[in-house]
Design a protein that fits this description.
The protein is α/β, with parallel strands linked by helices. The protein contains 15 helices and 9 strands. The chain has helices at 3-17, 20-34, 50-58, 103-106, 151-156, 175-187, 203-221, 233-238, 245-257, 259-290, 293-361, 366-415, 421-424, 464-532, 535-551; strands at residues 38-44, 75-79, 84-89, 94-97, 118-125, 134-138, 162-167, 191-195, 229-230.
């Protein structure tokens, strides 16, 4: 049986069973396979410039960009003869939209937490890069695809065929980005690594960052990795092809040349997964039909009690995580104080040297140059400190989650039953040590209301020495405020990641258990309906399930035969 025939079989059975999620995913897969389309997901941490990079690749500013997270939902860029866009909602319906209104559906500001219920966005672009089947996918920020921030992104993960991983240049590679790449490799083999915004660093800084990233990736993944390509979406848009941009486009075109193999592998990944989902559903429904109604009702009640026990267990863990939050806060208070003590004298001297160097060259604009210098020095110092402290924050988090995983795994071992299709669908275990499950939200604030030069620096008639001294005093005050405020924001951001990550881990277990009960209840309702129609209707239903299994390639009946 060909792949298309297998998908047709899955779609037909899913439609008959009313399993809409499986049917829709299979239909989407069949359509894109028939058209030879494959997905290259652009993934990376917030503020790496993913949307800008994709805009530059397709040659049009189709995706909104900004200084805050803008992508709330999956957005697919695919080839079209002319620019157009459409949005799909939770109901499954598509709606045509004007491309310039895309931000209303994908931005956090206009669609906070995806309140509009958008499940997918497609933008058709007349780009030569996309003409031969490649679809570029803009994703929510770091971890959203692979950690499962939303149901839509969780369901999209298996559809990714290749990943365009956007790294930063300063710091070159964070712990969170390493986690992202590890998760990506579990899904796919095709990786393209780029260091965006390369124009912001010197040649030496770029070379050092690239070498560091490649070394760490080889050691962490225990495999060869592609070279990190240095690119700048800004340069590509304003100047043209520079640095490694040509190599990036060549690499992506090479993927398009391999699309037959890529599409075949996508089919090979998807068919067994969708088939397995249907078999579990069939087992659940047949089990409800074969068991006495009272036994099924007791089973559902037992499942509900298990969920209640899990909720109580998760509630008890709140005390543990609260203690971790407090410890993290105190640890960061101490680290922030240490950071400020150590960095302030050095950065202040660097700022004074900058002001002295600019004093003769541009006296008129000296106050503004001094404030800009303070911003640059503070940003560099804080970002470097944040990168250093990131593993410390993750270590505190992983120690707490190790305890959670121990309790969760004990719970899963107690409720797991390989003979029960509902409970067999539960995950075997949670990883004993988990990293942050959410992206960092930190971004450096320039505190612009404090950046305006004070009146004393603009008075006429004062000497050059007095003016320079006044500029140094004002700029130094501003620098100290920047360091203190942003180091505090770093600490708060890591604390927030601990809280959000813990909620996601707990929500995953709740979701699994709720899905088990929902499936069991649906199966029991269906069984009651069949029993009400009489024994012949029940036998027909058993026969129908066996027919579904045979069409899916499973011929051995499970459980008692219809005639027993």
């Amino acid at each position: 049986m060909s792949g298309a025939e297998k998908l047709d079989t899955i779609i037909g059975i899913a439609d008959q069973l009313g399993v809409e999620r499986v049917a829709q995913e299979a239909k989407d897969l069949r359509e894109r396979l028939s058209e030879g389309r494959f997905f290259v997901a652009c993934v990376g941490q917030f503020k790496r410039g993913k949307s800008s990079l994709l805009n530059a690749l397709v040659g049009r500013a189709v995706l909104p960009v900004g200084v805050i997270p803008v992508t709330a939902v999956i957005t697919v860029l695919r080839f079209g003869d002319h620019l157009q866009a459409r949005v799909r909602f939770a109901t499954g319906d598509w709606r045509e939209i004007e491309p310039n209104t895309l931000g209303e559906f994908v931005s956090e500001t206009e669609n906070p937490e995806n309140a509009k219920g958008v499940t997918a966005v497609e933008v058709f672009v007349p780009s030569e890069l996309l003409r031969h089947g490649m679809c570029l996918v803009d994703t929510p920020g770091l971890g959203s695809v692979f950690a499962g921030n939303t149901a839509a992104t969780r369901e999209f993960v298996p559809q990714i065929d290749a990943a365009l991983v956007v790294l930063g240049a300063d710091p070159p590679l964070s712990g969170a980005e390493l986690e992202l790449i590890e998760e990506t490799v579990k899904q796919i083999d095709r990786l393209v690594l780029v260091m965006n915004k390369a124009d912001r660093l010197t040649d030496d800084e770029r070379a050092e960052g690239r070498a560091f990233a490649e070394k760490v990736l080889r050691e962490r993944l225990r495999r060869d990795v592609p070279a990190v390509l240095e690119v700048s979406a800004k340069e590509r848009t304003s100047i043209g092809v520079r640095r490694d941009w040509g190599r990036l486009e060549t690499t992506l075109r090479a993927l398009a040349d391999e699309r037959t193999d890529v599409v075949r592998q996508a089919e090979a990944r998807a068919v067994p997964r969708l088939r397995g989902a249907l078999l579990r559903e069939i087992d659940e429904r047949e089990g409800a039909l074969r068991r006495p109604q009272e036994q099924s009702a007791r089973r559902i009640e037992a499942l509900r009690q298990s969920i209640g026990h899990a909720e109580r267990t998760l509630g008890e863990l709140d005390y543990l995580f609260k203690a971790v939050q407090d410890n993290l806060g105190r640890a960061y208070d101490r680290e922030a104080e240490k950071f400020l003590r150590e960095v302030t004298p050095t950065v202040t001297r660097d700022l004074e040297h900058r002001i002295d160097a600019d004093a003769d060259a541009d006296a008129k604009h000296l106050p503004t140059l001094a404030m800009e210098g303070a911003q640059a020095l503070a940003r560099q110092a804080v970002e470097s400190w944040r990168a250093t402290m990131e593993p410390v924050a993750e270590k505190l988090y992983s120690e707490a989650v190790a305890r959670f995983a121990e309790i969760a795994n004990d719970f899963l071992r107690r409720v797991a039953d390989p003979k029960d299709p509902a409970l067999a669908a539960l995950p075997e275990s949670f990883e004993p040590k988990l990293r942050f499950r959410t992206r960092p939200h930190f971004y450096f604030t320039d505190m612009l209301t404090l950046a305006s030069p004070k009146l004393g620096t603009r008075l006429a008639g004062i000497t050059k020495a007095m003016r320079v001294a006044a500029v140094k005093m004002n700029a130094t005050e501003y620098l100290v405020r920047l360091l203190a405020t942003n180091s505090s924001r770093v600490a708060n951001d890591f604390s927030g990641q601990v809280l959000e990550s813990r909620r996601l881990v707990q929500a995953e277990l709740r979701d699994h258990l709720q899905a088990v009960v929902s499936s069991a209840e649906t199966a029991l309702r269906r069984a009651d309906e069949q029993r009400a129609l009489g024994y012949e209707a029940v036998k027909q239903e058993w026969t129908r399930y066996e027919g579904f299994r045979a069409r899916l390639g499973v011929h051995a009946a499970r459980g008692t035969s219809a005639d027993d």
